[in-house]
Amino acid sequence: MKSWGTVWYAIRAHVWRVSLTACIWCLWGGVAFSSVHSQGGLPTPRGYVSDYANVLSLEWHERIRSVCHELEDRTGVEMLVVTISSVHPFAHAQEYGIRLYEAWRIGTAQQERGILLLTALQEQQAVVVLGRNLLSAIPQSTLDRLSERHLRPMFQTAQFGKELYQAVVMLAAEAGENTASADRRSPSQTGFWMNVGVVLLMLFVLWRFTRPERKHPFQRWRRGEYWGTGQGGFGGNFGGLGGGMGGNSLS
Fold first, then answer.
1. What is the 8-class DSSP label of residue 51?
2. Among 1, 44, 151, 213, which one is most buried in terms of CB atoms within 10 A?
3. 49-51 and 125-130 beta bridge pairing
4. 47 phi-psi bin (left φ>0, alpha ψ -120 to 50, beta other)
5. Nearest-CA neighbor of 77 among 40, 117, 39, 50?
6. What is the C-alpha to C-alpha distance for residues 159 and 66, in angstroms, rounded to an integer?
7. How many domains does the chain have?
């Protein structure tokens, strides 16, 4: 027959195991809760793809991530894809997306070249949030086609992986093409205006040199205009020419 001491020891050991298990579950739950609800009710990023709604298979997850990674490597545009169960406590996916874009500082290191594609399952809403320097690269007409071809059908067919992948490819192609075109135009335009400025400066200097009053006054001496003034007339005229050249140099 067990003594009361042995029974009490067994009870204490059992209580300790239960308490330890409860603490572990509390810690795990706290980490999960903080991961999803940090930053004022917003989740924390998981890389290029944050599938909080668990709608993407590993294959589609990797394919989407690969497109986003390649886009940033080639163009510097940062694109993130996020799925969530609900936009709560926000009223609409657009508000949620803007807050998430700002909280995660998407595209900040890329000079405001960021893209966020957000999908909310419960509300059946999908939005695209663009950085300031991508508004001209991805116009509203492109977003309308994106919604019509991929985002709206996505909620009807529940093929989230396929439709999100195709949407990402479409956004990446548009952003990559227009961003590269803008980068190519900028140096050429700068060089063009620099060449124009150099030509205008050369024409101005040539005009200054060839004006009648800037020519050597020898012809005027022969007509008697400078007769008797000696080198004073020549010296004064040369001083004027020097002043003109100095002004051009400073400008």
1. E
2. 151
3. unpaired
4. left
5. 117
6. 19
7. 2
Q: Which region among 64-68, 95-99, 166-170, 236-240 has the lowest average model confidence (pLDDT)?
A: 236-240
Whole-number Å distance between alpha carbons of 198 and 192: 10
User: Does 142 lie in the same domain as 75?
Assistant: yes
Cβ atoms 94, 131 nearer than 8 A: no
Nearest CA to 76 among 107, 116, 118?
107
* pTM reported for the whole predicted model: 0.60
In a domain, 205, yes or no: no
Average pLDDT of the residues of the chain: 74
| Domain range for 222 | 211-250
Of 8, 82, 6, residue with least CA distance to 46: 82
- CA geometry: angle at 54 spanning 51 and 58, to 5°? 80
Question: Is residue 222 included in any domain, yes or no?
Answer: yes
Separation between Cα atoms, residue 198 and residue 184, nearest integer Å: 22
Which helix or strand (DSSP H or E) is residue 125 part of?
strand 125-130
Compute, in degrees rounded to 10, the torsion defined by CA atoms 72, 75, 77, 79: -50
The arithmetic mean of pLDDT across residues 66-88, rounded, is 97
Parallel, antiparallel or unpaired: strands 78-84 and 114-120: parallel
